[in-house]
């Protein structure tokens, strides 16, 4: 039962990642592309957590935490660049 749920979750999260990647490539505006990139980070975190559950390894959870931190910093930096044209003050 658990492996069936994990397989379904893998398929759905992978589909969500592919749709986000499509929006990243074809987004009409730069903010849409930044939002798609942020969604890709979240999908990568979900895939790592699902992998950690399937393989019963805590290493995947630590990698997901690192991606979450890097994704947050990247999104803030890109948004600040869009608003002000400069990242550092």
Would you kindly provide a written description of the structure presented here, covering whatever features stand out?
The structure is a single chain. 87% of the residues lie in helices and 0% in strands. The mean pLDDT is 90. The protein has helices at 2-26, 30-55, 59-84. The protein is flat. The protein contains 3 helices and no strands.
Short description:
The chain is an all-alpha fold and 89 residues long. Helix content is 87%, strand content 0%.
What's the average pLDDT? 90
User: Total number of β-strand segments?
Assistant: 0
Number of helices: 3
What's the Cα radius of gyration? Answer: 15 Å
Subunit arrangement of the protein: single chain
Largest sheet, if any? none
Q: Ends: how far apart?
A: 53 Å
**What is the chain-wise order of helices and strands?**
HHH
pLDDT under 50 segments (min length 5)?
none
* Overall shape: flat
The helicity comes to: over 70%
Strand content: under 5%
Structural class: mainly alpha
């Amino acid at each position: 039962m658990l492996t069936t749920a994990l397989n379904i979750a893998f398929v759905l999260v992978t589909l969500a990642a592919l749709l986000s990647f499509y929006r990243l490539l074809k987004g009409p505006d730069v903010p849409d592309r930044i939002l798609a990139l942020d969604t890709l980070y979240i999908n990568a975190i979900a895939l790592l957590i699902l992998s950690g559950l399937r393989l019963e390894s805590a290493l995947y959870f630590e990698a997901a935490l690192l991606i979450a931190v890097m994704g947050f910093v990247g999104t803030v930096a890109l948004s600040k660049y869009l608003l002000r044209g400069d990242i550092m003050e």
